[in-house]
Amino acid sequence: MSFHLTQGTFSYLPPLSDDDVKSQIEYALQHNWPLSVEFTDDPHPRNTYWTMWGLPMFDQRDAAAVFYEVEQCKKAYPGYYVRINAYDRRLGRQTIALSFIVQRPSTDPGFRVVRQEGPNRQLRYTLESYATTRPAGQRFSD
Amino acid sequence: MANHTEKNRWAAGVTPYAEMGYWQPDYVPQDTDILCAFRIVPQEGVDPIEAAAAVAGESSTATWTVVWTDRLTAHEHYQAKAYQVSPVPGTDQFIAFIAYDIDLFEEGSIANLTSSIIGNVFSFKALKSLRLEDMRIPLHYVKTFQGPAHGIVMEREYLDKYGRPLLGATTKPKLGLSARNYGRVVFEALSGGLDFTKDDENINSQPFMRWRDRFLYVMEGVNNAMAATGEIKGHYLNVTAATMEDMYERAEFAQSLGSIVIMVDLTVGYTAIQSMARWARKNGVILHLHRAGHGTYTRQKTHGVSFRVIAKWMRLAGVDHIHAGTVVGKLEGDPHMIHGYYDTLRNAKIPVNPLNGIYFDQDWGSMPATMPVASGGIHAGQMHLLLDHLGEDVILQFGGGTIGHPQGIAAGATANRVALEAMIFARNQGQDYVTEGPDILNAAARWSPALRAALETWKDVTFNFESTDTPDVLATPSL
User: For residues B368 and A21, what is the distance between their CA atoms, to the nearest angstrom?
Assistant: First the structure.
């Protein structure tokens, strides 16, 4: 069974169509959540800071324009993970409200568990992406 | 009658509480007062106002007889004041409202707060029964508590999970599994798609599985599942034990293995919970609370302490998670009451809402929110109802609904995750997901064999029983 990264809100659904993606962008805009696009070739779950495709689109109210930016990012970075974030700036939240993956590399070798054995059966676990053993930019090319 | 009305306030002997300053119908509560709503049933022949004044007296400065040493104090300041008593129509019950000056309580101590408010009064002979329905904690007092170690927002960022409820499962059978077998359940459930698994409340360190062995095997399961999915996963390692020293030892071992979350049971007591909350914030570990035992005093409408009050105390005490009801599952819970608990745990400001059992406005200021946990007899086929009743900031725990799946635990977990994501997706698309919920699930089941099997297995399971703890008022249907 090949590895499937399940980060993001919709990773257990079949791949999203363009209309699917647009409908979720619309939902965010209805809630006044500005959207942003991010990409990475380091899918470690503790990699919080994916590279930003420009700034968050605070003033962009047009779903088609947001979708255009998503497509531009995908075109510029094929073979990368690309995600869309919707941000809720309200007091008491000030955090992401929705985040989902819209592009994946054709294959991802996944993660290995590194076990550092200590005394008394103690273990220290580390998670390592097989892909990130290669330099950035060369990770998911075939 | 004439006898005691003429009696001097300070004459030795017994004077009705109402005449000693504990009943003040004209009192206007101050912003800094702690306010309580008690449901009281006086004994035959006891005036409800006197009963309310007695509660105010016994939960603040009074004893059964006049004492001259009151005169050494600014007693008007320290006396609690019953300021309103209202009959509950159609019953022998009354709601008594009592105000307590903030100076009566030690800063940041649930033990002190509760020793006053529910200390002696529940055994008071002049009352047939007593129940603490709600409390207004003034913001001034809220600010003296740490509050949730991390809160909902920090937890979501820590887990990198947004836009949907979180999913969990309690390991079953709750007793008897060896540590090695237990870790298998954890691994299967997490790698299948759950975010959390959980020790049950009575899993501590028994002969069939000692805590240290459990922690080691569980963390092997957690880390393997993280590698299998690329997601952050956690298992609530229950550190409940006989002493604080034991609990700290277990918590520190959990942390050293990289566990992101630990749990304690309500049975450890308020002070131990506050200590663990402080430990959890200091060490960056999420604190889960299982409300073991609460039904003994929260369930009956005329006795004890309402769960909404427990929820307030636990948010102050500093837990990140607390079980708060499912609406549709196997455990007690009137839907309106549960909405009230969820509001109390999650919102910054909660307005008076008699329909949901909320007696006072509550302002939490910037105190973080506690994540409610819905656990007990729920399954994937109820996903639309769960989302409708409980919203997004909740952990849905499917124990039997994961582990009892005919194709295995991982398939059970996948069924729940698929059902959840499909429902969120449909809701966001603007579908009427509550009405069309079963159709949305059936559509997803066409491409998800795991969900198809889950829906088939549990299609007719419901728990329709009358609730015992219900609001006094009912919504009038609008036409």
Answer: 32
Whether chain B has a CB inside 8 Å of the CB on A71: the answer is no
What average pLDDT score do residues B99-128 get?
93
Q: How far is B393 from chain A (nearest CA, A)?
A: 11
* Helix, coil or strand: residue A111: strand
Pairing of strands B94-100, B362-363: unpaired
Cα of B385 to nearest chain A Cα, Å: 19
The two tokens of residue B362 are: 């509550």
| 8 A C-beta contact, residue B327 and residue B333 | yes
Compute CA distances B400 → B56, B189, B330, B459, B462, whole Å: 46, 11, 12, 14, 14
Q: Of B271, B250, B244, which is closest to residue B204 (Cα–Cα)? A: B250
The contacts of residue B184 (CB under 8 Å, 6+ apart) are: B221
Any bridge partners for residue A125, and if so which? Answer: A115
Q: Tell me if B169 sits within 8 A of B141, measured CB to CB.
A: no
Task: Give the C-alpha separation, B343 to B331, whole Å.
Answer: 19
Compare CB distances from A12 to B219, B258, B417 and report the shortest one's residue.
B417
Asked whether B340 and B298 are in contact (CB, 8 A), the reply is: no
**Residues of B known to be catalytic:** 172, 290
- At residue B126, the pLDDT reads 85
For CA atoms A123, A126, A127, A131, give the dihedral sign: negative
Spatial distance between the Cα atoms of B25 and B220, rounded to a whole number of angstroms: 62
Residue B477: predicted pLDDT: 58
Task: Check: CB of residue B433 under 8 Å from CB of residue B384.
Answer: yes
CB B328 within 8 A of CB B378: yes
Taking only the tens place, the pLDDT of each residue in B259-317 is 999 999 999 999 999 999 999 999 999 999 999 999 999 999 999 999 999 999 999 99
Spatial strand order of the sheet with A35-40 comes to A51-52, A35-40, A81-88, A95-103
Q: pTM score, two decimals?
A: 0.95
Nearest CA among A30, B284, A96, A14 for reference residue A22: A30
